[in-house]
Amino acid sequence: MPQNRTLTVDYGRTTDVLYVVGTQLTINLYRTALPSAKFFSVVCSDNVENNLSHITWPWWFDNYLPLKDDSVLLLSMSSASKEQGDGKVKIQLFDDKRKLMASAELLLTAIEISLDVDADRDGVVEKNNPNKASWKWGPEGHGAILLVNCDSDSGKRPDNEKTYVGTEEDLKDMSQMVLRTAGPKELPKGHTLKLHMSAHEAEAAQVFTKKQNGDYSLILASGKLSRGFSKYTKEMTFYVSGLKFADNDFSGLVRIHISLLQPGTPETPIFTDTVQFKMAPWIMTPNVQAPLKVFVCSSADSSSDNANFIDGMKKLVQKVGCELQIITREVNRGDRWIQDEMEFGYIQAPHKSFPVIFDSPRDRDLDNFPYNELMGPDFGYVTFKPPRDEVNSLESFGNLEVSPPVTVRGKSYPLGRIVIGGAFPFKTDGRNMSSATRNFLRAQVVQEPIVLFSDWLAVGHVDEFLSFVPAKDRKGFRLLLASPHAAYKLLQGLQETGHGQAKFFEDVPDVKVTVDELLTNETLHDENDYYQRCIDWNRDRLKNELDLDEDDIVDIPVLYKSAEFKTGKAAVSFYPDTVNMIVLGKNLGIAKPFGPKVDGKCVVEKEVVRLLEPLGLMCNFIDDFTFYHLNLGDVHCGSNVRRKAFNFKWWEMEM
Predict the structure, then answer these.
(1) Is the pTM of this model over 0.90?
(2) Element at 149 (helix H, strand E)
């Protein structure tokens, strides 16, 4: 539907009118007519289309039309003027004897104005898409997309913190917006075109354009909300740079307008065209996505060496065929928990996609690694700094996982769902992720988060009791859950077959405990009954939120024990946690559990293999006992993986 613009006729004079193609001029002839006028006539040049709202017969055969209170004239032009004033309209008023009383002449100059974006998401800025000012999800949806320009194509800061274009490469991260105009060479005197946006949206995006000398100037930004043009060219290209992700106070939608202003104090708009962008969300990749690069920290030159762990990871990565980066002690400064420091994801638009590292606010010795070592050209960076009193162990990203794609009661999640841990519902004094991190994850929309109960653990991370692994059947994956009951069943089976004296940690100096000793420890048994209930609560929640059946879940034998901390007692794994694993395609890097042996073979390892290898998976056990397990973490905690992005385009989700 065309934009309507009300126009007042001044009788007895000629009026210059600037008209925008695609709009409609509305003139109420009765309102400004002389009181004694009874008839009127309208004559237009061939390039002006006209209609009378109250006349239904072919009125042009009669030069005298009755003037009534609903005599409204509608004018339009189908193309831009070749010269100013080439659209002519003459309106005459007559008395009851059809004697001429007054006349007015309108000289219309038609111009075309279109602010355009890639609203059909094909990577090309099309002209005047009718859906350019709105957003619709789905494969048949529409709406332009904006990337947060959070990589660094030049210098040491991310580009979304800069107010300049550092390199031509930086432009490729931005979304193009084109102003197209047609008409006489110049706008009529006093008229201007103004590009503008709101103060709130200027905090989320800024706009550049190329100057005649080849440099780029910032024309819209926070504190610079409009830019006027008294002259126009047929096409003017702008580059829109996203500054921040959707969040609790920002929907992710950015609107930019071009307005045609007529002179006055103040200037008044006679036409506005609007485009809208949707900020691309940060997307996390699940274990089922192919690995590209594995990260681990080396403790070389320290008193506690993780050479065994590094050697095991090298063999695993070599088997998989992806890249391995060993972060030296000089860089990691003794911080081994690379999983807790950061999480890999990516952002995507039709014209560009690149990985983005989400840096946790834990701020320990690895704090500088994501910013200094990973961020760069086509590698983005995002972080938040919550109030210090909100930051606790649950803020580390061992407590941030994502499921494989699922469909839940008819709703599809083709990018999976975020999984985080927190306090038990209704518990007011428990630990949770900071509101800043939780709000950010929710605001990305496409991987709607699930909150589990992990506060029963000392460290409190979901990766201590769950993992997702690929599978060749059913939903294409399995949920692995730690199971104290499965561990006790395994131990009871050993005792029943005469192996009660088999020892845990037989190959570990100074740490020995027999199966019989464990089974007679009533305190440990009672504690693990409670831990199993905690896991079962999460099990039911995951079954509901991911639409899983029991056959989609594998119970992995894991025992926990209670340990005393400053904050009180909480659970830690009794032996290396076999669920806390790294998943590299069909190859799993699993903490060597050092379980009791029968015929020289670890029964825990044997049981894990029995459960997982029929799924097409290969179990690779890695010694992490001294350097990781005794410090309350295992293989997953000590490693991180950048994975291949989804082929699925997030904007095609059905919401």
Answers:
(1) yes
(2) none
Enzyme catalytic residues: 637
d(CA 235, CA 349): 23
Could you tell me if residue 321 is left (phi over 0), alpha (psi between -120 and 50 degrees) or otherwise beta? Answer: left
- Checking if the pLDDT of 220 tops 80, the result is yes
Residue of higher predicted confidence among 390 and 290: 290
Domains of the chain: 4-111 (2.60.40.1860), 117-279 (2.60.40.1700), 283-652 (3.75.10.10)
Distance in angstroms (rounded) separating the CA atoms of residues 636 and 148: 29
For strands 582-584 and 503-504, give the pairing: unpaired
Span 489-513, pLDDT tens digits: 999 999 999 999 999 999 888 888 9
**Are 501 and 515 in contact, with CB atoms under 8 Å apart?**
yes
Asked whether the beta carbons of 554 and 608 are under 8 A apart, the reply is: no
The residue ranges of DSSP E strands in 157-252, in sequence order, are 175-182, 192-196, 205-210, 216-220, 226-229, 235-242
- Do the Cβ atoms of 67 and 39 come closer than 8 Å? yes
Model pLDDT, residue 54: 57
Integer Cα distance of 19 and 29 in angstroms: 19
| Burial class (CB within 10 angstroms; exposed 0-12, middle 13-18, buried 19+) of 188 | middle
pLDDT at residue 56 is higher than 50: no
Q: Which of 349, 346, 355 is nearest to 378 (CA)?
A: 355
- The mean of the pLDDT values for the chain is 93
